[in-house]
Write a structure and sequence with these properties.
Elements: H1 5-15, H2 32-38, H3 51-63, H4 65-73, E1 76-78, E2 84-87, H5 90-97
Antiparallel strand pairs: 1-2
Length: about 130
């Protein structure tokens, strides 16, 4: 099943405008994800979303450069109701300032194994073959 994370984020912004914003994100309170997942299937705006889709949406939202910039500034964290609930710690600010690693285009190629004698099995290793009945 494919889905567009942007549509999920739009629904979160519409359902909880005091907490979620694409243009001016606020740091989310610790544990807000669990609250949101508890509302999956219950809240009218989240009725047809799965927990996996909500997790993916939160991951994209909190990984965005705008959110990380808001986190790096520090200040209060906000709950679903838009009320302050905790503070951003200096460690969290420092983490938000660190550059995110770029994904590799392709995994590095492994070197080809050198031809040679078959390795001896390790102690306790039982060499087995699978036979199928036809």
């Amino acid at each position: 099943m494919t889905y567009d994370v942007n549509l999920i984020l739009d629904r979160l912004c519409a359902a909880f405008p005091a907490c979620f914003s694409r243009t001016a994100p606020k740091p989310l309170k610790i544990g807000l994800g669990e609250e949101l997942l508890a509302l999956a299937g219950v809240h009218p705006a989240l009725a047809d979303l799965t927990r996996t889709q909500l997790r993916r949406g939160l991951k994209v939202y909190t990984g965005s450069p705008a959110y990380r910039k808001a986190l790096a500034k520090g200040g209060p964290r906000y709950g679903l109701d838009g009320q302050p609930a905790g503070e951003v710690t200096p460690d969290q600010q420092a983490f938000a300032r660190t550059p995110r690693p770029k994904p590799l285009a392709s995994p590095p190629a492994l070197p080809a194994p050198e031809p040679g004698p078959e390795p001896t099995p390790a102690k306790g290793y039982l060499k087995m073959t699978l036979k199928r009945r036809i």
